[in-house]
């Protein structure tokens, strides 16, 4: 028995402490409206409190909103339907997103696309948030970050499809199907503040195309003329770029799509059937002190 206890102690010492997630209780999700996808007007009131990493997809007369909960003990991806009422959104009661029947608090930063057959594909980043991470050993190569994908019929219950791509320090995936039928991925490396671009023929396995854009987390949108727009974080707000060659070259669009003195991050953009554009994004409450 002492030997078992000794092995258990050695194992615990080889693990890093659990991440402090209390700062997420200061995060809020806001919405901003636009008539053209270029100039957005922000709502002064938060859509969700203690929530981060928003993602929105059209769902009938409204949208389905995905986000990561900042509530104590509820870390992970949650989803709720939302309907537009007047100039704001009413969000229904949320429920946890299940992958293979379980809610995983280590899986975050959702991005969702609707496939031609009506199914939803979820892209996420899996890290160590509620599970302890192995300590870095001198000479050991840092484990690559895994961008995962999963498939669903109802937007709540997903089936794991495995890793879409594995890269050093890659987070915040966003995917769009483009005019030629292929899929385009953008993922961010926070350490280097670069957005990397990848391509796929079927949407579940990606390879990089060699393009790197300076900036933070973003969202890809396919425009009606086949052009692709990338909305992404920059100092001062959300900027955008256009690609007219399926994601190899990107031209900067002037000015910012949305700006604020308080940092605006993690944009998710959707165009409704009505033609209206909405951006969902995250800010930190200025007066918030984490517990």
In short:
With 291 residues, the chain is mainly beta.
In words, what does this structure look like?
The protein has 291 residues and is mainly β. Helix content is 4%, strand content 51%. The protein contains 1 helix and 24 strands. The chain has one helix spanning 2-13, and strands spanning 27-34, 41-42, 48-49, 51-59, 62-69, 77-85, 88-91, 95-96, 98-99, 107-114, 120-126, 145-152, 157-167, 171-177, 183-189, 194-200, 207-214, 218-222, 228-234, 237-243, 251-252, 258-259, 265-271, 277-284. Strands 1, 2, 3, 23 and 24 form a 5-stranded antiparallel beta sheet that branches.
Strand content: over 45%
Might you state the CATH topology name?
A: Tachylectin-2, Chain A
Largest sheet, in brief, is: 5 strands, antiparallel
Q: In sequence order, what are the helices and strands, one letter per element?
A: HEEEEEEEEEEEEEEEEEEEEEEEE
Backbone structural class: mainly beta
- Helix % is under 10%
Number of helices: 1
General shape: globular
**CATH architecture label:** 5 Propeller
Radius of gyration over C-alpha positions, nearest whole angstrom: 19 Å
Q: Under the CATH scheme, which class?
A: Mainly Beta
Low-confidence stretches: none
Q: What separation lies between the terminal Cα atoms?
A: 39 Å
- Number of spatially distinct domains: 1
Say which CATH homologous superfamily is assigned: Glycosyl hydrolase domain, family 43
Mean pLDDT: 91
């Amino acid at each position: 028995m002492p030997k078992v206890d000794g092995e258990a102690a050695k194992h615990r010492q080889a693990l890093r402490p659990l991440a402090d997630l209390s700062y997420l209780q200061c995060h809020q999700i806001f919405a901003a409206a636009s008539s053209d996808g270029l100039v957005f007007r922000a709502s002064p009131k938060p859509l969700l409190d203690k929530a981060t990493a928003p993602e929105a997809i059209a769902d009938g007369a409204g949208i389905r909103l995905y986000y990561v909960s900042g509530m104590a003990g509820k870390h992970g991806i949650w989803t709720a339907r939302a309907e537009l009422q007047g100039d704001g959104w009413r969000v229904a009661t949320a429920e946890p997103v299940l992958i293979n029947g379980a809610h995983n608090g280590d899986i975050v930063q959702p991005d969702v696309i609707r496939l031609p057959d009506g199914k939803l594909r979820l892209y996420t980043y899996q890290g160590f948030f509620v599970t302890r991470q192995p300590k870095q050993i001198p000479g050991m190569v840092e484990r690559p970050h895994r961008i995962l994908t999963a498939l669903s019929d109802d937007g709540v219950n997903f089936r794991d499809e495995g890793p879409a791509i594995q890269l050093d320090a890659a987070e915040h995936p966003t995917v769009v199907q483009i005019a030629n039928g292929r899929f385009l991925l953008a993922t961010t490396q926070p350490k280097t503040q670069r957005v990397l671009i990848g391509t796929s023929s079927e949407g579940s396995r990606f390879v990089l195309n060699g393009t790197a854009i300076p900036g933070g987390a973003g969202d890809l949108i396919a425009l009606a003329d086949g052009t692709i727009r990338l909305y992404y974080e920059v100092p001062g707000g959300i900027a955008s770029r256009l690609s007219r060659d399926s994601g190899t070259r990107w031209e900067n669009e002037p000015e910012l799509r949305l700006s604020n003195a308080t940092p605006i991050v993690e944009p998710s953009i959707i165009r409704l059937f009505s033609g209206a554009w909405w951006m969902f994004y995250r800010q930190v409450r200025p007066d918030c002190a984490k517990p």
